[in-house]
Amino acid sequence: MNVGDIREYCLLKKGVTEEFPFDEETIVFKVMGKIFLLTNINDPEISVNLKCDPEKAIELREKYESVRPGYHMNKKHWNTVIIDGSISDNEIFSIRPRVSFVQFLRNDVKRLAVLHRQSNCCIMRNKYLLTMPQPNR
User: Fold this and answer.
1) Percent of the chain at pLDDT exceeding 70
2) How close are the terminal C-alpha atoms of the chain, in Å?
3) Smallest Cα–Cα separation from 5: which of 39, 30, 53, 51?
4) Which domain holds residue 65?
5) Is 129 helix (H, G, I), strand (E, B) or coil?
């Protein structure tokens, strides 16, 4: 897996944006204006910082040697995952949406309400966000 694969996967999610708010090397992915993943695009040792439910964060650290408390992040809510081949790409992609993207959909009701009013979105049991096109009036 490389940074391009990570970028492509993140941008497939509805409402995800990318930017470089810190410097020209750190790409940040946000949903509804909040960071859920960031990585250095020039580091030869690829790693990603992932926003994570606190209980899930500990579980992942115990399960995988390449999952560590978030580097330069709040250790309670962030994990750093070293992309070294010890975790398969499929496993990494399967962890990311459950512990990052979906967490924001659950935890930020006010932002969801604003997003719903602005883009006529449908929220289904805090698991998925489906965007419906607004009718022309």
Assistant:
1) 67
2) 45
3) 39
4) 3-108
5) strand
Specify which residues 128 forms β-bridges with: 124
Across residues 120-131, what is the average pLDDT?
A: 44
pLDDT tens string 5-19: 889 988 988 888 999
Return the pLDDT at 99: 43
Place of tokens 């560590």: 68
Domain count, the chain: 1
Identify whether 128 is part of a domain. Answer: no
Model confidence pTM above 0.85: no
- DSSP string spanning 41-88? SS-SS-EEEEE--HHHHHHHHHH-TTEEEPTTS-TTTEEEEE-SSSS-
